[in-house]
Amino acid sequence: MADQVREIERKYEATQDGLPDLAAVPGVAAVVDKGVTSLDATYYDTEDERLAADGITLRRRTGGDDAGWHLKLPVDEDVREEIRVPLSEQLPQELAGLVRSRVRTAPLVPIVRLRSERDLRHLVDSDRKVLAQVSVDEVAAERLTGGDGTAHWTEIEVELGEGAEPDLLDAVERTLTEAGIRRAAGPSKLARALDETRPGAEPAQPEQAGKAGKAGKAGKAGKRAKPGKAAKAAKPEKPGKAAKRSKATPTAGDHLLRYLRAQITAIVELDPAVRRDQPDSVHRMRVATRRLRSAFKSFREVLDRSVTDPIGDELKWLAAELGVDRDREVLTARLYERLDELPRPLLVGPVRSRLRTWSNARRRGSRRHVIGVLDSTRYTGLLDTLDALLADPPLRPAAGRPALDVIPGSVLADFDRLAKCVDSALAAPRGHDRDVAMHEARKAAKRTRYAAEAAQPAIGKTAMRLVRHMKALQDALGDHQDSVVAREALRDLADQAHEAGESAFTFGLLYGHEEACAAAREDELPQAWQEASRKELRAALRR
Questions:
Q1: Neighbours of 185 (CB within 10 A)
Q2: Do the Cβ atoms of 117 and 154 come closer than 8 Å?
Q3: How does residue 369 score in pLDDT terms, banded at 50, 70 and 90?
Q4: How many structural domains does the chain have?
Q5: What angle do CA 20, 26, 31 make, to 5 degrees?
Q6: Residue 328, H or E segment
């Protein structure tokens, strides 16, 4: 069984003068000497160090009070999520799954062994609560794969105690800085060990330690042939940022590829969160797949669809498989909300327990299904394909033109397509035909919204306004579609209740409420579309 902790820590270069008086740090009542502990850790990665390139560490450590397997995932500066599994000889499958989106099918092998003598101190308050742990670590590193280099150094590590205020780290740092102690440039012991034990590496001087790590990591980010590394290099950019970096006008291809990288990054980084069933993770991963697929369709003038269409089909498959879990969450929440709105006398029979049983049965199956999808060769193959797309993008001639000459027209084309879908929905007779037409309009609104989001760095405020209008329209159309799905579920629940000899009255009542909700949304569509299709927006896209 895995334990999860949030680790907030900073590392510093040790000096010959040792530690200053940390009892002088505001809020610290005493410094408790906890003695010296021997730690022995073996770090695992692929031979081409894919985990290290993404700032992830996976180790088996003995010694100390937390011996076992540790996986550390970066969250923010100074912050990492650490998943701990009890000590065993073999790598736990649970941890292997959490790094699969990075390593794919490559084997995990021992790459570095770190042996440390840790001189530990606790900073405590007046109630003897541990505010922080401060250790002076004498480290001996030995490379196990890709050479036989060794390295030695001493560093200071300050880790925030559970429940302590983050400001304490700043207070400790001020005391250390006043004593001439500086932050370590490297992000981790592993990063330093990899750099200093690499064949041909020069031993780093104390004031330079870790700098090579940053340079080495940056160099790896540019190697596009290795799975997982392209995705990490991608971050969404603010409007105009590319132009500021270069006097050259950003091309449509440059603009779109930055957006694609950001979505691929999201898929890879959200994989462990989905496996751990973290809130909203499935939804966010599914949105990233849809944004990618939508971009392939919207910006067909920039990307060759003979290449992107098959990838889009695989993204559609992944989104649908993820939807098994996400759609259950949304539907269950809606049905519970509807039950909460009913007066107690109208809750006839064990309706809540019936709904709970129905939902839990679907959940158990959907969770197993989603994990199976993420463990499949089809999924890892898709990730490899996305990396290959970024390494050798199928750009069409229009990709070389200025972004403002191409991107707005692609958004406008999606907007015009949406207009036709809305007209069809308004003209369709009430019932199944209108339900289908409104669902198509919803998908078109979502595609237009995603296109506007992708275009925002290029066309600025016009895209932002369009995103707001599309989101409002999409929400209205989405509520209608959710009502359609809810009615199907309520029929199923009513049938189950009837077969069990229970009253189906409440489920029938909820069905009627959902019918009324759908009708109201249909009546609101003309006004909602009028708001979303203002002429000035269309005119701005044409300029």
A1: 18
A2: no
A3: confident
A4: 2
A5: 50
A6: helix 305-341
Q: Residue 136, SS3?
A: strand
Evaluate whether residue 227 is within a structural domain. no
Stretch 170-192: mean pLDDT, rounded? Answer: 93
Q: Is the pLDDT of residue 232 over 70?
A: no
pTM of the entire predicted model: 0.82
Long-range pairs of 509-515 with CB within 8 A, sequence gap ≥ 24: 509/342, 509/346, 510/335, 510/338, 510/339, 510/342, 510/486, 511/487, 513/338, 513/341, 514/338, 514/483, 514/486, 514/487, 514/490, 515/483, 515/487
Q: Distance between CA atoms of 466 and 462, rounded to whole angstroms?
A: 6
Would the pLDDT of 532 be above 70? yes
Distance of CA 375 to the CA centre of its chain: 17
The answer to whether residues 199 and 274 belong to one domain is no
Q: Within this chain, do residues 462 and 317 fall inside the same structural domain, yes or no?
A: yes
In this structure, the answer to whether residues 412 and 480 fall within a common structural domain is yes
- Beta-carbon contacts of 198 under 8 Å, excluding residues fewer than 6 positions away, are 143, 146, 147, 149, 216
Tens digit of each residue's pLDDT (9 = 90 or more) over 389-446: 999 999 999 999 999 999 999 999 999 999 999 999 999 999 999 999 999 999 999 9
80 is in which domain, residue-wise? 3-221
Both tokens of 220, joined, read: 């790896």
In this structure, the answer to whether residues 247 and 373 fall within a common structural domain is yes
230 inside domain: no
Average pLDDT over residues 76-93: 93
| Non-local CB neighbours of 500 within 8 Å, separated by 6+ positions | 354
Q: Phi/psi zone of residue 68: left (φ > 0), alpha (ψ -120 to 50 degrees), beta?
A: left
CB 104, CB 384: distance < 8 Å = yes
Distance CA 42, CA 62 (A): 9
Residues 193 and 271 in one domain: no
**Residue 345 and residue 365 in contact, taking contact as beta carbons nearer than 8 Å:** no
User: What pLDDT digit, counting tens, does each position of 11-30 carry?
Assistant: 999 988 889 999 999 999 99
Confidence of residue 330 (pLDDT cuts 50, 70, 90): confident
CATH number of the CATH domain containing 375: 1.40.20.10
- SS3 (DSSP) at 181: coil
User: Residue with structure tokens 């463990």?
Assistant: 375
252 and 215 within one domain: no
209 & 252 share domain? no
**30-45 and 109-124 beta bridge pairing:** antiparallel
Residue 435 CA, chain-centre distance (Å), reads 33
